[in-house]
Design goal:
Keywords: Membrane, Transmembrane, Transmembrane helix. By secondary structure, this protein is mainly α. The protein contains seven helices and no strands. It has one domain. The mean pLDDT is 81.
Length: 187
């Protein structure tokens, strides 16, 4: 009798690992289902924790909130100062002040309101990162794009920081990790 013949029913087993103790993790699934191996995500690949770039986008929204508060404060102080100075008779002959006095205080107060509303919107969107769905993601994308456009045109010099932050927010939230985070199942 030769053990080398594969057709010999009494020969050595041809299956690798037959008759040897099974390795851990190869046991048939009895009882509760086992957890997925480390590195794999349950629920079809949905992330369990917020990805780093999505978390960075949320931090950038909070930075925009802080910048909006500073901007609203500066616009309010400017409007109040110009309004008070317009009533001062000693400055009527000063040509440098006349250029400053040509600014409408109504426009400055409108900018204060706009800065406050834009900051509140950024704060609301920043708080919705953990519970929001795809609608919040799309709103954040639109917010980022509009902020980038506003950073270019009316507020060119001071809007550069807003422009960079808005582009990064739109890229991070619009990417595949942002999509996976906002489309994850919520149980």
């Amino acid at each position: 009798m030769s053990y080398g013949d594969p057709n010999n029913p009494y020969g050595a087993p041809q299956q690798p690992g037959y008759g040897q103790p099974q390795q851990p993790g190869q046991a048939p699934g009895y009882g509760y289902p086992q957890a997925p191996p480390l590195g794999q995500q349950p629920y079809g690949g949905a992330p369990l924790t917020m990805p780093g770039n999505v978390s960075a986008a949320r931090v950038m929204l909070w930075v925009i909130v802080g910048l909006q508060v500073i901007g609203a404060g500066l616009f309010a102080v400017s409007a109040a100062t110009i309004n008070a100075a317009q009533k001062d008779d000693s400055l009527k002959d000063n040509s440098a002040f006349q250029q400053l006095a040509d600014y409408s205080t109504g426009k400055l107060w409108a900018l204060v309101v706009f800065a406050v509303v834009w900051g509140v919107l950024a704060a609301v969107l920043a708080t919705k990162f953990t519970s929001g769905g795809n609608g919040v993601r799309i709103t954040i994308l639109v917010f980022g794009i509009i902020t980038a456009v506003l950073g270019l045109y009316p507020f060119t010099l001071v809007g550069i920081v807003h422009l960079v932050l808005a582009i990064l927010i739109a890229c991070f939230v619009g990417g595949s990790k942002g999509k996976a985070w906002f489309n994850r199942p919520r149980y």
